[in-house]
Amino acid sequence: MKRERNVKIVATLGPASDTYDMIRALHEAGADVFRLNMSHGSHEEIEERHKIIRQVEKDLDSPIAILADLQGPKLRVGEFENGAEELEWGAKFRLDLDPTPGDVNRVCLPHPEIFQALQPGAHLLVNDGKIRLRVVDCADDHANCTVETGGTISNRKGVNVPDVVLPLAALSDKDRRDLEFVCALGVDWLALSFVQRAADVEEARALAHGRAAILSKIEKPSAVKAFDEILAVSDGIMVARGDLGVELPVQNVPPIQKRLVRKCRAQAKPVIVATQMLESMIESPMPTRAEVSDVATAIYEGTDGIMLSAESAAGDYPIEAVTTMNNVAIEVESDGTYRDIIESSRRAERHTVADGIVAAAREIAETTDVKAICCFTTSGTTAALVSRERPRVPIIALTSLRGTARRLSLTWGTQCVMTGELERFKQAVVNAARAARAQGYAGEHDQIIVTAGVPFNQTGTTNILRVAPCDERLIYSTDPE
């Protein structure tokens, strides 16, 4: 499925998008990755959506990545005798382990690990931050608080604790069951919610046993502080701005987003910007201008992916939302300012032979009339390195491994093509020329760049760069064995 843009679009599936016709239409409209939200839907429903995606992939002969988003630990207050209470500014309010239904003075918070981590002065945010409590004093079974921001508190509302690192594993018992289930299904990416430290990622990786790549969701202040360590052990990152904007002052989120995107790009790891990108399109066929600007800003920053949540999962206009994202991306990437920003933010990373090869490929492409960079990859690393350079020409990633092609569907600019296993470099050049012509990126009289590693089919061996003609007769007459 040839795209006219480089940034990738992630679409969440749900009740509004769980049929074959809708999923196929979303992919044709521009969705490159489908997100399965494990917070909603039974295993049977998730399995059916997975099955449909793979059928669409087969019918369209187009690799599609599937991202399973684990729910993570959910912290919630208990229930109230009257269902809800109104908390006034300056009032005293107690959280404790007593399961008795709450009132205007107290409610149960059935999470002893929170009380163990709290300290006087810490804040607790209830109902997406609409209610703000400050801890006055606390013990292992309670916390006495002052209401700093009042409002209506009701049964089972969520609680955020922004000021402390909680002694909670990122994987709940439900997450462990879900992880095993989706890995057995064959998803390509696992999104890990409420990551606080690198050890959370390592735990998930040990359970996945290499069956899926690990994408860490950055949605807590502690994750922002430990980001370098988390990035080092992650395969990708999601800037999950929803909870991040609850636990931090909202004005902090844009610069954090920019820093995280640039760090991911420097490490050649894909990054998704997510949450409320086209929120109004849940109910409206048209986005707001502010939402369009938000999407455009993420693209200008160089993000690999932009994500739709409820817009495509439960909204009234899922296809229109994907189409809008696609059109915004095409317009932004055709703007000369986009190129200026992308190239000025490029950070030189020259530590290996592969780094030098891909940097040279990008420089050659910028100074000659080369039409595409074709890279043969086993693990996807070479394609990711080429993507980090953000070249001006298309990136064609050729691989014999379906899983690699699918995972690369999340990487900026990559057009994935399946190829057979290779034994000779000449055959690699021929396959690359055929792919460039078949995808419409080059004609018979054009040139392409081919990168590969010899011996073939081994990870981390990128050591060849060749500027080659797309005319197979010239390849056979001039290319070495």
Describe this structure in words.
Helix content is 38%, strand content 23%. It has helices at 20-29, 43-60, 112-117, 173-185, 198-208, 221-225, 227-233, 241-247, 253-266, 289-301, 310-313, 318-333, 336-344, 353-367, 381-388, 402-407, 425-438, 472-478, and strands at residues 8-13, 33-37, 65-69, 84-87, 92-96, 106-108, 123-126, 131-139, 142-149, 151-154, 159-160, 189-192, 213-218, 236-240, 271-274, 305-308, 370-376, 395-399, 414-418, 447-453, 462-469. The model has no long low-confidence stretch (mean pLDDT 93). The longest helix has 18 residues, at 43-60. An eight-stranded parallel β-barrel has the order 1-2-3-12-13-14-15-16, surrounded by nine helices. The protein has 481 residues and is of the alpha/beta class. The chain has three domains: 8-73 and 170-335, TIM Barrel (Alpha-Beta Barrel); 84-160, Beta Barrel (M1 Pyruvate Kinase, Domain 3), CATH 2.40.33.10; 353-478, Pyruvate kinase, C-terminal domain (Pyruvate Kinase, Chain: A, domain 1, 3-Layer(aba) Sandwich).
Indicate the topology:
Elements: E1 8-13, H1 20-29, E2 33-37, H2 43-60, E3 65-69, E4 84-87, E5 92-96, E6 106-108, H3 112-117, E7 123-126, E8 131-139, E9 142-149, E10 151-154, E11 159-160, H4 173-185, E12 189-192, H5 198-208, E13 213-218, H6 221-225, H7 227-233, E14 236-240, H8 241-247, H9 253-266, E15 271-274, H10 289-301, E16 305-308, H11 310-313, H12 318-333, H13 336-344, H14 353-367, E17 370-376, H15 381-388, E18 395-399, H16 402-407, E19 414-418, H17 425-438, E20 447-453, E21 462-469, H18 472-478
Parallel strand pairs: 1-2, 1-16, 2-3, 3-12, 5-6, 12-13, 13-14, 14-15, 15-16, 17-18, 17-20, 18-19
Antiparallel strand pairs: 4-10, 5-9, 7-8, 7-11, 8-9, 20-21
